[in-house]
Automatic annotation (TrEMBL):
Keywords: ATP-binding, Kinase, Nucleotide-binding, Serine/threonine-protein kinase, Transferase. ATP binds at residue 38. GO terms for molecular function: ATP binding; protein serine/threonine kinase activity. It comes from the Eukaryota. This is Protein kinase domain-containing protein. Signal peptide: none annotated. SUPFAM superfamilies: Protein kinase-like (PK-like) (SSF56112). It comes from Pachysolen tannophilus NRRL Y-2460. Belongs to the protein kinase superfamily.
Length: 291
């Protein structure tokens, strides 16, 4: 490992079943090449074969993707001594979008900034879906930032191919996937669901988190009062414009178009939820300048 990617150094991130470390490779011209190394360990009571399949599936998906807003994954190796898989990825030095939102102390990002990040993620999701992949765990914590404000989506551990090139229909997903505050309501109520529409719901939540400075509800279920408040105030025949303050209070250009898109992405009925093509056609998104 060290011959190809240098010496593994300090921890820069931790998750439930993995650790991200730095690795620095010294070049002959005395320059340095820095990599991020994701160390994946077996879950408690997880069978070895399932663990191997899970990690290699993540690598096969992430390493096959080529997009400016998706992390580059270069290689995978096994440390047999500790039964740890090492995924070699590009190093992004400026932290995640969650940390940037946290720095606002609850006031949220400026609209132009949030719009720019939103369009970058929308662009990346459109690419993913075009190659038959859904992310299934979109959240601000999984969006890294470069020094120039470029988004890099990470963590394809729950990603799945929903459609192979020879298939005509989309494979459905079963059960909640990802982080609860970002999960669409159908994950908790339906036997199966379209994972593409779940990604769209998550993107809508990401925008509200960026603007609100915090989660808007804990879970998209009627057991959550904050979610019930949203249901009562989203557009309806009696209230066609909607009166959900988190959306209505956002300032900026193309307000009506933006609100229509956000309510559309966060439609609790996946059958009528706004599709990617409709989002791209909106006046709001067409006028967002990429930063």
């Amino acid at each position: 490992f060290s011959e190809k990617y240098g010496k593994i150094q300090g921890v820069i991130g931790k998750g439930a079943y993995g650790t991200i470390r730095l690795s620095v490779k010294q070049a002959s011209d005395k320059s340095e090449k820095i990599f991020a190394i994701k160390e994946s360990k077996k879950k408690l009571n997880e069978k070895i074969q399932h663990f191997a399949n899970r990690v290699t599936s993540e690598f096969m998906i992430s390493s096959s993707l080529t997009h400016q807003s998706i992390i580059n994954t270069y290689d995978i190796m096994i440390d047999f001594n500790s039964n740890t898989y090492l995924q070699v990825m590009e190093y992004i030095p400026c932290g995640d979008l969650f940390s940037l939102v946290e720095q606002t102390n609850g006031s949220g990002l400026k609209t132009l900034e949030a719009d720019c990040f939103f369009k970058q993620v929308l662009n990346a999701i459109s690419y993913l879906h075009s190659v038959g992949i859904t992310h299934n765990d979109l959240k601000v914590e999984n969006l890294l930032l470069t020094a120039t404000g470029q988004i890099k989506i990470i963590d394809f551990g729950t990603s799945t191919p929903f459609k192979c090139s020879w298939e005509k229909s989309c494979s459905k997903s079963v059960g909640p996937q990802g982080s609860e505050p970002y999960c669409g309501p159908e994950m908790f109520t339906d036997k199966s669901y379209d994972p593409r529409l779940a990604d769209i719901w998550s993107l809508g939540i990401i925008y509200l988190v960026m603007k609100n400075g915090s989660y808007v509800w804990k879970i998209a279920n009627t057991s959550d009062p904050a979610y019930n408040y949203y249901l009562q105030n989203r557009p309806s025949p009696k209230n066609p414009e909607g009166s959900y303050d988190v959306i209505e209070d956002i300032i900026g250009h193309h307000r009506r178009s933006r609100n229509r898109v956000l309510y559309g992405m966060l439609d609790p009925n996946p059958k009528t939820r706004m599709k990617l093509k409709e989002i791209w056609k909106s006046t709001w998104v067409r006028n967002i300048e990429m930063c």
